[in-house]
Every structure is written in structure tokens, then in C-alpha cells.
């Protein structure tokens, strides 16, 4: 251990620095908005310049709706609701919720379809938070999504409870996590099992219809999850999705019918409002979380059961489909909380920055009747005036509340809005307010000429709207308050860690060179320069969103460039031509795989236009390809197993032999698992009694046993071999094979192919390393430490991440992997499985595979000094770590530079999270791997000699 | 032409280097000119035809000129050199295309024509001149391309523009993934521009080197 510590301390130090830097930076970058604990109260209104509501029963606004039914359909895409004539092409999933469209076209004044624009991040929890608080939840909350903490901010559910409204909830249990003690009655159902399409929905349906007859609630919330889950598992264009939508249509039809039946005067739902809404949209693959139009655009269908007239055209932003008599307007989800609060007559949530939406408001609150501006009769005009008066007052309260929030917020938060913006806000508000006192006075002369008061009211409403939309815009653009000091500190520590890293490498170089007693002249070889150049280019490329989007292709481009360089060297030496050619061929194959991955990504990503139609040709042309797709991975597994078999046949003994045998058994099981999943051979019934989760779990168990064997056994029994290269190789093979089976089963069928590809590529690299150094150094026998193969290895790792169908975004995670071998959602094992799946090839295998470059005698210098082994091993680990760290540091820098970029939350932040997690994981793995490999090496070399060396 | 042929050794005068490079450059310009004025084509709007025109004009000029500088003219006639160049054109195109594919050029039938024309152009920049001069001499090829150790103005004349074209094309590929949505970002437009720019820079460099070597030799002689 002494020898390990000599350089192992560097890895510990660097890991420590990385973790600190990343923690500090993250704290500055992924900040939550300061959540204010204040809440609004009825009595607050006396401080406002607005009319308080005349009746004593109401609070801020006059309640317009007695009962509210909110039906949330999770991941409701806008095109599920809107008529297909609004879109270029009719898709199979459109026009399924026919009842909503029918209602909207039959009673345009009382039912309306809105396009609701959510704010990213579009995950259910964040959206529920945003919908109820009327604020902008920030990115960091994504991390809390699994733990679903209760909302501490003021929100509209809280206001309902405070004002004695009774709320009933059914469906998704996220609501009960967010509002643990708020509901009078709740029927929560577990939401995390994505494979379960029906439990939540059936529970909702079971309780929804009976509840409609009951009188013990004022607000009913029913949250259906089926569409979200169907999207996650099957995608949008699938039969389960269409079945779900048809089921919802039937349910909604029943609900609307019941409500209509009871909407007569004096009946239960005389004054009810029905809202059918999505919390966010989803992409065609069923993913959501980002900010693409598909994910952000959802829908709100609002229907009141009174016969109401339509709104004056100035406030009507809808776009109409003349043929079908359906108009659709757009509403930001931000406005939801405040609008609903105003309809129910409860105080607006303290932190809401939305605006009372006139169209949604008008659906429930309407007191005038007119068709056309020109045919106003006197009565209509007074009614219109009354409405406008009312709405202006609501907006007045709204603006006052938002202004109060902004004031309190900027007083309590250090870095809030800039003084310039605050000044502009105050300016806009005071202008509107000035106007208001005039308007208020004007309206007090009720008998005054309407012709003058109408334009004044309209002007007033416009002034308030301007203020509110300015605040919302400002909040959107500036809310994520980056703490630049902390970010700067984080970057500083990161740079310091890079400095330490290079220092450590220099030290290693020195001891390597000194021990050889040959001073190297300049120490700058072409390989070093090329590596430096490549790393710099890669780091620089992260500055642009386009390169982040196509990072796989860019990495592959660089990998192929280094491949061409090595090909050139092997031409120079006239050696290893075949290996170099195979390596290039492999990069070509990886590139195809990456493009397939990009194609998958393009289907979901807002930032990419899907191209590459040639791949469609492949995927469509039927049976041969599906057959190939089933057979190829199994063949690849067999080949892998054969390689392993050969390796134990030739050189193994003891524990490693059993480990590798275990892996071969695992491969067999994995192949069996795939065969049972596919329908080529009718083996499914054969294995039914066995259980489909059995095989994956057995594989996990075998892997655990293998790893613990590898970890524990060397501590107790030390085998003496003279050949440290051989023993290193065996160690590497055994740990790689132990890890590979789990990774392959998690990655699914592509996993085997990728594993085979990486094995071949590793072999070629191993053979090719040293091609260049020999020619540079000229003198045989001295191996100059050449970073080029390490760079290639790390580029290959990046390529593998993308080639195995991942990309650096949250929808790039393969959530299906978390459910291999598990049916229910259990947080910790599934988080681990997801991590292994994501970082399996790119980090775990590549770090453990690094000794590849030491384990084999380089064909160019056979006479390497044995004692230099550990140094070279460490050196390789260090250089690999440095390359990863430089990339991560570049990501951090680029994220800082681009923090106001349009896609900072869509692209840069996920990339940042991926890189940072990858970096820490790499550090950790390097730490573990260096202990693992080192333990035993030093015994063979002898401590005395090591002391002499270092 | 005849004056060029009289110079058998690999050493050629800087004026010849200048002449050959200017001719090659002019051929490039002529290709563009013909495409633009005669056929009213543009590299951006119709890369296939434009590239086709450019290489069709460029490669005969290259073959004819470089065949004059062929090595061992006593063993190899002018026409053999031309034949070597003609043979080298498709081989070099194949190699260039393979390299481009490995680096990430789009695969697919709709790109096939573009890739073919681009690689023919690249071949006439990189492969054809050396094929004319050295034929299939493996050691010479290795010296010039693998080891990058050219000696004498003639080898620099072969080596620098070829490397320039390849490196230029490599850099030219970088704007391709950017989201500027400009038509010239498509394969192989910006790569071709990069290659041509690199080629021209390489020619200028080779001419400069030829001048320096020439003056150096003169000084040597003077001393």
C-alpha cells in the first residue's frame, strides 16, 4: 500500500478538488429561486388601490364559480385535443378526444380549447408546482422530483384551504406528496410504475363519477396518468396510446353529461366550471422534461355550464378554424393559478406572477351579451362596461399582488432583479396606477357617458396587461439567478485541480524518465501535440449548442482523425496496417451507430431537424432486418464468450478462472433472456414458469459475487507469479468480464454489439500503441509515454456512450434499463441500474480497461523495465483522468459563458450534469481501479525497489 | 512544355513551380468561372454539377503539367505518366471517399453523387500529381505522405498542396453541424471550400519554399 499511496494520494486529492469545485459551481449555477414563505390573506387587499369586493362573503374577487372540476391528463399533447385541421397532417392519435372538440364547436362561448404553454422543466412535479403557485419552478427541482417535497410556497390549493374550500383529489400520488395535509379526501395511486397503464386511471374513474353527485367538495382534482405512461412505454403513435385516449373520451363524455344534467338552476352544478388540462406535453417517443414545443405545448379545455356570450375582440387572441367553428387561443400556464383563484374568489398565491387570463376568465364571468361591436344596444353596453370594470378591477388586484411580490422578493433576495428592471417595473406600475385612480373616479359616476368610460377602461386593462406581461417576461428571462461568485470559485477550484493533475503527471513523467536514466530532450512529441490539439478542439466545441447536440459525431470525427494518423504511422513503419484499417472500419461502424442514435434523438429533440432518410429505408424493410436484429446480438455474445473462453484456456488459474466462467454462464443466460423476449423462437412459454425477472436478477447476483470475489480474495491469498504483465492482463480480463454481463443485459441487444466493437477497437489500439513513439524516439527500448492512445481510448469511450443509444439529455437516459429485472419502482436499485446503463461502457468499462496499454508488451519495445509498470499504469490513469477533467472543465466554462443562452436549460445544463456526474464517477473508478490493479503489483516488484524508484 | 521536359531531376526551378501552381490555380478559377458564367451553376445550389465541372477542368491541367515533371523520364514516357495520372484519379478518389466516410461524411444514395465528385476533386488535388510524378514507387509515396519528409522543391510541390487540401477539408468540416441553417453548410460544400483554400495555401507555401531553396542554392554556388 505504501507504493500505492505515493501516487494514489494524487487521485484522492484530485477527486476531492473535483467534488468541491463541482459542488460549489452547482450551487451557483443550478440555483433554486428563493422561495418566500409569505402567503396572501383576504385582509391584505385593503393596502391595494383597488376596489375590494362589495359582498362580505368574498375575499379578493367576487367568486364566479362555486365548484371547480379539474381533470388533469398527464402529458396531454396539444394535438390530442385540438382538431386535426389545425395541423398539417392528420396523425392517428389526433381527434380522439372528440367530446371536447364537439363541446368547443357547439358552445363556443361556454367551452373553449386553449393551447397552454408550459415553462420548462416539463416534469410532472415541476408543472404541478408551477400550476399551483403560479411561479416558475427552476431546474434544480428536477433533482427533487423523485423525493417530491411538499410545496412551501403559497399556492392556490393552500389558498383554497385557508378560505374554507374543500378539495378532493384522486389519481397521481404526487399531489398528496406536494400537499400532504390539504385534501379533505384523497384517493392517491402510486405513479412511478411506468409499465402500469391502468391502476391510476381506473382508480380515478372509480371515484370520479360518484363524486360528481356529492356535495362535500368545492374543488375536485382528478389526475390521470395513463397517457404519460403509455407514451413512456409505447410512444405516442401506438395502440395503447390510442386506446387510452379513447377511454378518456368516454370518461369525459360521461362527466360532461352528468354535469350538464345537473347544471339547471338550483342544481348541484349550476355554477360549476370544468377544466380538462394537461400538465405538459410529450415528444413522439413519450419523453418530456425539456423545452421543445412538443413538450411545452399542452392544452386546457374549459367549460362552464352557463350560457355565456363571447368576449370583445380586443382581448380575444384565438385563432379560428372557420370550417369547424372552433377557436383556439393560447394561454401561458403561468396564468393558471391566478385565473382560477380569481374565479373561485380566493386570494391570489403570494408568489404568482401570472395574469388573470381574460378569455378563461370570461368563460365563467360574463354579464353582457353582444355579438358585434356595431350592434350594441344600450343594455349590452352597460353590461360590457360592467364586465370591463370588473375585469379591470381584477387586473388591478392582480398587478398590485405581483408588484407586492416583486418588491418583497427584491428586498429579501440579494441578487434579484437589476435596479434598472425594478425601475422599469415601478414605472410601468405607477403609470397604470395613475390611470387607475382616474378610471376609478370615472366609474364612480355610474351614470356618466359610457362612450367615454369604455375606452378608458380598455386603456386601463391594456396598461395593467403591459405591466404584468413585462414582469412575466422579465421573470422568465432572469429568474435563474446565477451566483457568479460561487460559479467563479467553482471554476477556480476546477482549474486548480487541473493544475494539480498536470503536476502529478509531470512528477510521474519525471520518475519514469529518471528511473530510466535517460533524460528526454524536449519532452514534446508529435503525439503529445496532437493530443493537446484534439483535447482543445473538443473542449472548444462544447461552447456551441450544435456541437453538444452532435457530440457523438464530433467525438467520432476526432477519433477517426486519430485513426487516420495511426494509419499514417503504420504506413510509415509498414507494420500493423491491418489493425489500423480495422480500427478505421470500427470507427465507421460506431459512426453509423451514433447516427442511428442521433436519428432517435432527432425524433424527440426540439433542437434538431431529423434528416438521414436512408436509415428509414433500413428500418422499414421488414423481416430480414428484424431477424438480423434478433440474431446479431446473440451471435456477438457467442463471440464474446468464445474470446473469454480462449483467454481462460490459455492463461488462467484460480479465482479469475471461476470469475470468467461465471461471466460465460451470464452470457448464456443473457442470450436466453433475449431469445425468450423475442418471438423468433417460441420459447416464451418455455420460460414462463421461470419468470422473466429471474434471469436478470441471477445475472446481477452473479456479477455481485464475481466482484466481491475479485475484491476480497486477493487480500487473503497472494499468488506469486513472476509475470506481472500476465497477471495484470488476467486481472483486467476478470474484472471487465465481471462488469460486462450486467452492462450488456441492461443495455439490451445493442449492448452485446457495442461490447464486441469496443473489444475489437481496444485490441487494435493496444496493437497500434507505440507505432508512433518508436519512430519519434528512434532509439529502441525506451518507451516514451505517449498520450495519444489514451486520448483515443477516451474518445472511444465518448463514442460508445453515444453509439449505445444515449445522449446527454434527460430523455437520453434509457429508463427502460431501470426496469430490467424489476417490475416495481424501488428508488435505490433502479437509480443504480440506470447509472450502470448510462455510464457502463463510457466510464466503468473504459476505466477498468485502461491497463490494456500496459498489460500487453508493446510490440515495439520488448525490453521494458519491469519496475516501471506501476508508474506507467498510474500515468495512464492520470492522463485519462486529466482528459476527462479537461472536458468537464470546458463544459463548466462553456455553461458559464452560455448561461443566458436560449438553450441553457434544454442543452447546456443537462450536458453539464452528465459531464459532472461522469467526471466524479471517473475519479471514483480510477481510485478503485488503481487500488485494484496496484494491489499485488507492488508485491511482485518489491517494495524496496519501489522506494528506490520514488 | 518542352522546356519543362528538359528538366529530368527532381530539382526544378522556382519559375517552373510558379508556372505549375499558377496553372493549377487558374484551372480552379476557370472551373468556377465556367460553372458560373457558362452553365450558371453555383457550388452552393448545385454542388454536384459544379464540383464535376471543377474537377473536369482541374484534373487534365494537373495531369498534363505534372506529367512533365515525371521521375526518370528516360524510362517513362510522357504518355505513361499521363496514363498513371488517369489511373491514379479513381484510386485517389476511392481513398479520399473512404477517409471522408470514416470521418463522418453522410452515407446514402442521395449523397453518392456529391461524394463521388468531391472525392474526384480531392483526388486531383492530392493523389494525381504524385501519381504522375512517381507512379507506383512505394518508397517515394511513403516519404512524401506518410513521413512527410519531402526534399527538394518538386516534392514540396507535391506534398504541401496535397496536405493543405486535406487539412483544409478537415477544418472545412467543422461548420457543418452548426445550426446556422445556411445552404453552404451541407456536405460537401464547405468541405470543398476548405479543401480549395487549403490547396491554394499549400501552393503558395510550396512556391515560397521553392523560392527560398532557390536563393539558398544560388548563395551556395556564389560562395
From TrEMBL, chain A:
Pathway: Glycolipid biosynthesis; glycosylphosphatidylinositol-anchor biosynthesis
Membrane topology, as annotated: Multi-pass membrane protein
Xref: Pfam families: Phosphodiest
Subcellular location: Endoplasmic reticulum membrane
GO cellular component terms given for this protein: endoplasmic reticulum membrane
One GO MF term: mannose-ethanolamine phosphotransferase activity
Keyword entries, A-Z: Endoplasmic reticulum, Glycoprotein, GPI-anchor biosynthesis, Membrane, Transferase, Transmembrane, Transmembrane helix
GO biological process assignments: GPI anchor biosynthetic process
Transmembrane segments: 12-31, 486-505, 526-548, 578-599, 624-645, 657-675, 695-716, 728-746, 790-810, 831-853, 873-895, 916-934
Main location: endoplasmic reticulum
PANTHER family according to UniProt: GPI ETHANOLAMINE PHOSPHATE TRANSFERASE 3, PHOSPHATIDYLINOSITOL GLYCAN
Protein family according to the UniProt entry: Belongs to the PIGG/PIGN/PIGO family. PIGO subfamily.
Protein name: Uncharacterized protein
Organism: Gossypium barbadense (Sea Island cotton)
Automatic annotation (TrEMBL), chain B:
Membrane topology: Multi-pass membrane protein
Subcellular location per the Swiss-Prot or TrEMBL entry: Endoplasmic reticulum membrane
Transmembrane parts of this sequence: 12-33, 53-69, 81-104, 116-135, 156-173, 193-213
GO cellular component: endoplasmic reticulum membrane
Pathway: Glycolipid biosynthesis; glycosylphosphatidylinositol-anchor biosynthesis
Keyword Transferase: no
Keywords of this entry: Endoplasmic reticulum, GPI-anchor biosynthesis, Membrane, Transmembrane, Transmembrane helix
InterPro entries registered for this protein in UniProt: GPI_biosynthesis_protein_Pig-F (IPR009580)
Biological-process GO terms, alphabetical: GPI anchor biosynthetic process
Any one Pfam family match given in the protein's UniProt record, by short name: PIG-F
Broad class of the protein's primary localization: endoplasmic reticulum
Protein name per its UniProtKB record: Phosphatidylinositol-glycan biosynthesis class F protein
